[in-house]
Amino acid sequence: MTHDMLHVLEWHNGAKGYAPFSDLEMDRRQTAMRDWMDISEVDAALFTSPQCILYFAGWMHRPFGRKYGMVLTRTAGTTISAGVDGGQAWRHSYGPNVTYTDWRRDNFYRAVRQLTAGVKRLAIEFDHVSLDFRRLLDAALPGVEMVDLSLPAMWLRTVKSPEEQDLLRKGAKIAEIGFSEAIGRVAGGVPEFEVATAATTAMIAASSDAFPHIEPMESWTWFQSGINTDGGHNPVTNRRIARGDILSLTCCPMLFGYSVALGRTLFCGHVDDASLALWEKNLAVHRRAIELVRPGAKCNEIAAELNEMYRNWGLLRQRSCGYGHSAGVTGPFFGREQAVDLREDVQTELQAGMAVSVGPMILSPAGSAGAGGYHETDLLIVTSEGAERLTSAPMGPAHNVVG
């Protein structure tokens, strides 16, 4: 029996803690969303994705099989967290918080119902909620009309404020610290995980030194060798580096849910002629991609020009992913604004304040000359006149034949 147990409560344990963004910045975000709500005749918004809760409340949650949310009304933006999190959500979110307990499976929906009393039209994230979630939400809020907010919320995130840009600049410097640490660990016989762990540990330490409070353990490093370089997001393994191996290193510090990616192709000890030719071609595409990122440029037109470079070399079919994507509120399991992907099917016009991670990649299959994946990644912020390149680690054979 649970009749004497609480289902939804305020568990405000401790005082509000350090936040990377000012109250003025958080007010700006919520006000922008409320402006859309007014235009769309929406009474309240329910955010459920990590990226939206983080963006509008400043708190990054870890689901672990539980539901989380934030309800934005005309007067408040309240996070909904699980009892297992204690007062952490309260301490690190902007605005009020309520906690739901595990004693009944519908307690999350009870919290939503309490925070949306009287609402007739509720905006939710159609691209995030499951069919089961929607069924239970409809049952908890009978008669409430549901509309989609995923696209307007995404568009708000695409243009980074000055405070967001400053955070990304700090992240870029920390990525370079991880990169330098990794380079020093590359040698024949060393397993991938040792290089990656060294880079990540260095970034965690640098992040901890840079802020009064941070949850630094979300930073990560991708480091692949040999056959494992065929995927830019392939996990780190215990494969040992061999002399002559192609290597792919990407350092990704995570600062308050904002990630930066710095990626470079490397070789251990020496690079053969076939590999060098492919590497130089991909570097040429990468450098041109950086030049093309500017206000007024369209994502699909950037992709089209870069396609021609690969096509002229007979490499277009070996291209394995898009030329880049938005940066900021993103991680391995959440976020990213697909409207700023540098792809053929995205017609977005770049504008000042957008952050773009540029990363052309080609794959030469196993058994062929120069086998492996070639991938460079840099972060840029579009300015009024061009783009500011935040990551500046050296690239190419003059610098990155190491170990």
TrEMBL record:
Where is each Creatinase N-terminal domain found?
Answer: 29-159
What is the protein name stated in its UniProt record? Answer: Creatininase
Family matches, as SUPFAM superfamilies = Creatinase/aminopeptidase, Creatinase/prolidase N-terminal domain
Protein's organism: Paragemmobacter aquarius
One Pfam family for this entry, by name? Answer: Creatinase_N
* Peptidase M24 domain mapped to chain residues: 167-383
Taxonomically, which superkingdom? Answer: Bacteria
